[in-house]
Amino acid sequence: MRRRTGRRVAAALALLPVLALTACGSGDAPGAEQAGGRSADDPVAGVREVESVAALLPAEVREAGTLRIGSSVGTPPGAYYPNGSDKPPEGQDIDIADAAAKVLGVRLERQDASFETILPALGSGKYDLGTGNFGVTTERLKTIDFVTYINDGQGFAVKKGGTALTKKVTDLTRLCGLTIGTGAGTTFEATLTARKDVCAKAGKKPYDVKVYSENGATLTALQQGRIDVIMSTINGLRHQAAQPASRTTFLGEYHRLDVGFAFKKGSPLTEAFQAAVNELIRNGTYARILKKWGTSASATDTSRINPPEHT
To answer: Quick check: helix, strand or coil at residue 81?
Structure first.
């Protein structure tokens, strides 16, 4: 009986990431990659090309009519698969990218990729741009150009009812002696690695960092007690905590970051995409997209190219 019970528990835990992701689908709005697959009430459906903005694209791009986008699809509200990976992804990042492309009069050829591979692939020319809730940091600005479209950042979450951490993390010394789970190649991993000496300086036991390639694996590790806390995006953790199946508690914001489309350094596309995002802000489409995904609190007043990292 113990063995069967253990198997049932393991199976239930394995389903947690799926439940957390599917608990908040967007109903009948399919969120397909092209306008033809979008319902009439979708905020992206009515977006049209704006000639003055499209004119900012290089002539060869306008002639080709397509751009290759490397897209990291993980969890809502950013980008996820509500209906399985054989169906188009949905999410805030998907909608903003599709809407910007429509303003520019081009079609996006979306290629799914793991988060940590997209930025290096921009330099090699595999993609023209990338999305994946990429935060603008001083280190990334050395090799990547950004066009911002939202203000998100870093936060923490714990297992609901747990006692390892119960208050907002305002200082990383609160993590001393704990095990933190986070995503590979993220600003979270970089922050935790760069600041790992804070515990020794405070005379405390160091924290341990476990890196996962999938958000679902991180959530499962939390529920199984293999990690004490998750560090991830503010909007992602807030959304996750709102799903009863995830059984997590959001501990609040730690560090805000601008988030944007990523391009190789010196890309000729940045000015056009900045103008496209600002057009979406001007005509109200941007506000409707954020309202759809519950992220209005992270709205930005204007898109910027390569802003300095928030301090």
So the answer is: coil
How far is residue 32's CA from residue 20's CA, in Å, rounded to a whole number? 21
The SS3 assignment for 173 reads helix
> How many beta carbons lie within 10 A of that of residue 131, not counting itself?
27
Enter the tokens of residue 293: 């995904």
The pLDDT score that the predictor gives to residue 37 is: 59
- Strand partners for 71: 112, 131
Predicted pLDDT of residue 164? 83
Q: Is residue 108 classed exposed, middle or buried when 0-12, 13-18 and 19+ CB atoms within 10 A define those classes?
A: buried
Q: Is the pLDDT of residue 7 over 80?
A: no
Kindly report the backbone phi and psi dihedral angles of residue 302, in degrees, each rounded to the nearest multiple of 5, phi listed first: -155, 150
And the tokens for 2? 């113990």
The DSSP annotation for 216-266 comes to: HHHHHHHHTTS-SEEEEEHHHHHHHHTSGGG-EEEEEEEEEEEEEEEEETT
209 has a pLDDT exceeding 70: yes
Q: Would you call 190 exposed, middle or buried from its count of C-beta atoms within 10 A (0-12, 13-18, 19+)?
A: middle
Contacts of 167 (CB under 8 A, 6+ apart): 174, 251
Rounded to whole angstroms, the Cα distance separating 62 from 269 reads 11
